[in-house]
Amino acid sequence: MIQEILKAFGLPEYAEVNRIGTGHIHQTYRVHAGSNFILQRINNAVFKQPEIIACNLRVASDYLKKNYPDYLFLTPLRSTDNKEMVYDAEGFPWRLFPYRENTYTVDKLETTGEAFSAAREFAQLTAYLNKIDVAKFQETIPRFHDLSLRYKQFEEALSHATDERKQLAATCIDNAMHWKPLMIQYETLVKSGALKLRITHNDTKINNVLFDRTSREAVCVIDLDTLMPGYFIYDLGDMVRTFVCPVSEEEKNYELITFRKEMYEALLAGYMSSMEEVMLPSEKTAIPFAGKMMTYIMALRFLADFLNGDIYYYTTYPGQNLVRAGNQFRLLEVLGENII
Q1: Which residues is 96 bridged to in the sheet?
Q2: What percent of the chain is helix, strand and coil (3-state, nearest 5)?
Q3: In CATH, what number does 112-338 get?
Q4: pTM value?
Q5: Is the CATH number 2.60.120.10 carried by domain 2-99?
Q6: What is the band of 23 on the pLDDT scale with cuts at 50, 70, 90?
Q7: Max CA distance (Å), the chain
Q8: What is the pLDDT of residues 89-125, one digit of tens each?
Q9: What is the CA radius of gyration of the chain?
Q10: Nearest CA to 200 among 310, 60, 49?
Q11: Would you list the domain boundaries of the chain?
């Protein structure tokens, strides 16, 4: 099947193809055919209208080339018949990217330099798109970071959960209700107009940045499937959630969930170095809310999935989603204690 896709992009069928990456959504391969390329199969169960991804990237790319021609924005290469995606016999869309030599990604944030540089790069994309017409973009995953929706989904999951699951999740359920004021604060910010609707990345994990092997500086952001309308708190918040804690959401020992102040200060400095000039005063006052809001969203999503019988997130052992939910609720406590 891959050979047919290679042919559609004008690459030799005998090219060397190797699976790479740690992502759980798409299948990603490195292709060596004289030059190197990245070949990726899009998960159309998650992205039900992949053509929206292509459209959003095209609009952003055209704008950036015109207004910021030196900015590195990775976009897919065209097929031999000038298409942005090629569909295989099973209906999965594939796309091909140029491979950036002398770059690397990291799965775990280790230094304040990485935090500053990555945050600056994510923010630069949003800042450069500050004046673009948001109406030209569509949501690739509708209401992806809408806290009101995620709380409603939690309530629905709770109403249908078995007594056994509700009993096992009792502490997390109490936490979900305890932090409900965050949802009310989110609704107030959105309805009041305090947050400007922008084009944001919406998946600001550290491994969605390419770093240069020589300078160790971030050179561009990748994984732009969720480039779509959103609020700055989505991008900044997810960086806070994933950068400041030394362990991931999979950690079972909640005592290891701590607040790395130096990482928080570095990522905030990096983010503001690109975004400060385009942010509204009301947005700046919402900065402390961002990390708590995104952490609460993930806690609710993991908890709802557990209550629903583990139907969304992949699990490798019973109760894993409950561990993840508890982990994020603990991180939420830590953030609440350290970010005022």
Answers
A1: 39, 77
A2: 50, 15, 40
A3: 3.90.1200.10
A4: 0.93
A5: no
A6: low
A7: 59
A8: 899 999 999 999 999 999 999 999 999 999 999 999 9
A9: 20
A10: 60
A11: 2-99, 112-338
